[in-house]
Amino acid sequence: MTDATIDAVDVPAPVPSGAPKSKANVGLTAWFSRSLPDFINPVLVKEVRQAQRGKVFAFTLIVTLVLALFGATGAALQIESKYFNSSPGQMFFSSVYVFFNMAVLVVVPFQAFVSMGSEHDDNTFEMLVLSNLKPRQIVMGKIAAALTQGLMFGLTFLPFVVTAFLLRGVDLTVLTIILAMTAFASTVLTTFAVMMSAVVRKRLLRVLTMVALAGGLFSLVPASLAACQEWFSSPELFGDPAFYAVMVQFVLFMAVAAALFFATACNMLAHEEENRSTNIRVAVTLLCLITLGAMAYNVMFLGVGGGMPREAVHGLGVGSLFFLAAFCIFFVLEPDRLGRRVEPSVPKNRLLALAVSPWLPGGSRGVVFAGLHITLFTAAILVIAIPAAAYRWMGTGTAPPSLMFPGGWALIVAGAYCMLYTLAPAVTLRRLQGTTGKRNAARLIGLCLPLLLMVLPTIFGLFVDDRSMQEFEHVGNPGWAIDQSWDSGGFRPASSVLLVLATCLLYTSPSPRD
């Protein structure tokens, strides 16, 4: 029945011979025939039917509604006792919104995590992977099933929202934005939960991840409630274009993060011979472009003198570089051999194949990807910071006349460290690529490389009685080097950059055995 359902969806409906054929209609029909199986698939149907027949969803729905009813009753009594309250709707909505958050920000993502993990516990994961369903259909089915439950939660809470609006004191625009952002956050968190459940397969690690996920989700409830109350108390924010600009940037970042989570979950379900790297590399590239675009917008278009200061641009650039290096470590430790299902997709044109090679799977191509992105990202941040205003405190500017200070050299030093952290594992750990377990061990060692470079010189300082090294004041500590290059007091940042780059060249030089 599953195959018949998919085939029935995949085949477009026949067009009568007398009806006029439009290219737009044919294209729309073809798009729906390709897209509907990703959203309406047997996984979605199975999960929804299990939720309706099971007791967990019904019990959770009843408990949250009862708690919301108690909260609404308590808010109504408070409103009655404070008769002259100017905004009773805000008090009523806040009393109910906390339970709505628990439903859509905690229960829905947690159920998605448990649903994906149950495939491992019930020994049905292999059957699901070997079915005719593609990995994206499986992941989309799990996410859509969880969001369907979230939609049911939202519909049951809708009368409380309408009551809060009728009690006055709640602006309709603010209320709509709050509910829309809550639904968007639930979607991102659900995608993240499905990804974590797909990545962690061992029972013990999955239990620990489940506990950590539950704690993290519960911590978001008070934060969301605080943001809601802040928006209610400051309605002037919604008349400021800068507020909407920041919100759009936040939504873009979260959307790319959700796409990255979705791609990772799909790759964990895909066969090793398939392309399990390109979609993540494209998402990382898109994330870099959005980060640069957001910084440029905040510097140039938020008003003269009111944009992001130069120090903030450099600081965010340093943090983004290390975040980028973490992804590059995974890319450079991939097997160089292209899978049998990947080779036919490589462009036949040599120039085009060379152009897209950084986004193809493989450790050597991952090195090209890392070098290209780290270098261009560092250069772009330096260019974006040129027109930025200096940070002002008590009417005085803190930036020296040179554009390389106070954070330009720090950005270059951070880029050099990221190159070291990326190239060193690619060369020293490239032999640990035989099995999945060895590759995971190599990636763990690569991620721990910054810690090793910080601790080993400190231990050496204990033997030679060097107090500076004992206090982590050495070039192996990126925090100390970046801080010193930022202040440029008694420190030559160019020497640090050359030292790190020389170490990178030493790692990349061929050994006699090669």
Describe the structure.
There is one protein chain. It is built from 20 helices and 2 strands. It is globular. Residues 1-13, 15-19, 21-25, 393-401 and 510-514 have low confidence and may be disordered. Strands 1-2 form a two-stranded antiparallel sheet. Helix 7 (135-166) runs antiparallel to helix 8, helix 7 (135-166) runs antiparallel to helix 10 (241-269) and helix 11 (278-300) runs parallel beside helix 14. 73% of the residues lie in helices and 1% in strands. It has 514 residues and is mainly alpha-helical. Among the domains are: 41-238, no CATH class; 447-508, no CATH class.
Keywords, please?
mainly alpha, disordered C terminus, two-stranded antiparallel sheet, 514 residues, 73% helix, 1% strand, globular, disordered N terminus
